[in-house]
Specification:
With 302 residues, this protein is mainly alpha-helical. Helix content is 58%, strand content 4%. The protein has 3 domains: 87 residues; 67 residues, no CATH class; 95 residues, no CATH class. It is rod-shaped.
Length: 302
């Protein structure tokens, strides 16, 4: 049915007794054999019946219009809510990405001694709970980091995936030092300084407190180990430290679910085993050096 544009409830009944309707009245009167007045009444009844039908159609049309308006309003409200959720999510994401700044104490000067800062690479390894050489935490390693990190452009980034989340990290976070020294090659002094910086950085990068305490106890027990009173004792304990520290990290990140060992306890049997191996290696080198090379004529006779 075509859309009704005029409210039939406002329509006024027609006066079919008027002269304009003479032809219609006369035709109906002649057809049905009734008076002109009765024909006018029939025309009025027909108009009223038609208008009543239009009233019902108008009511249905109004109801459909209200339902359509309600549906559209609901859709618009849902769209507004969806846009609001998107904006809120974007705002939260921006807040997450926005660097967090600590406050500062007014009129408080910088400390006289500036703290050593290892490279982005070393800190990235610590955040991933991976093994990282102590060399990165020595004064020399931190000085190299200060030089190299400033040399990398601020816009140089690479993708990193952590816990199924992809983020951008400075390229320097993935660049190992070409001057790194293996832990067993460090001096005792270098190891003592580096481990303090390492423990502080572990705390800053969110390592569990008990892990930090265990590693601190490990180094404290090495410092006070009686093996240091013996010849080459420091070298043996440095080799022990290098092997045990690396193995501890490997076991902490194994995927089998097996718990790692307690690094704070020194395995004296392993210390002795490492010492014997180092002595045997030294003895072999001394024997090799003590044997003179063959003379030229002896080589020719062979």
């Amino acid at each position: 049915m075509p859309r009704i544009t005029v409210n039939p409830n406002l329509a006024e009944a027609l006066d079919f007794t008027l002269e304009v309707y003479t032809v219609a009245r006369d035709a109906i009167a002649a057809q049905h054999g009734i008076s002109v007045e009765a024909a006018a009444e029939r025309l009025n009844e027909a108009w009223t019946a038609d208008n009543n039908i239009k009233k019902q159609a108008w009511e249905q049309q109004e109801l459909a219009d209200h339902e359509e308006a309600a549906r559209r309003a609901q859709e618009e409200e849902q769209q507004r809510e969806e846009l609001q959720r998107i904006e809120q999510n974007e705002t939260r994401e921006l807040k997450k990405k926005k660097p967090k700044l600590n406050s500062f104490i007014a009129n408080r000067p910088i400390a006289t001694a500036i703290k050593l800062r290892p490279s982005w690479f070393a800190l990235h390894k610590l955040k991933e709970c991976d093994y990282i050489e102590l060399s990165y935490f020595t004064p020399e390693g931190c000085a190299e980091a200060a030089s190299n990190d400033h040399a990398v452009a601020e816009e140089a980034f690479a993708f990193s995936k952590v816990n199924d989340l992809v983020s951008l990290q400075p390229i320097s976070a993935f660049k190992a030092s070409s001057k790194v020294i293996q832990d067993n090659k460090l001096s005792w002094r270098e190891m003592s300084i580096a481990k303090i910086n390492l423990l502080q950085c572990m705390e800053e990068t969110g390592w569990p407190k008990d892990h930090i305490v265990a590693l601190a106890t490990f180094y404290l027990n090495l410092e006070n180990h009686p093996k240091r009173q013996e010849p080459d004792g420091d070298a043996i304990l440095l080799a022990y430290q290098a092997q045990v520290h690396r193995e501890w990290h490997i076991q902490l990140k194994n995927t089998t679910g097996e718990l790692a060992f307690d690094i704070s306890f020194i395995n004296d049997d392993l210390v002795e085993k490492i010492g014997i191996k180092m002595w045997n290696t030294t003895k072999t080198q001394l024997v090799t050096r003590s044997v003179p090379p063959p003379l030229p004529y002896e080589i020719s006779r062979r």
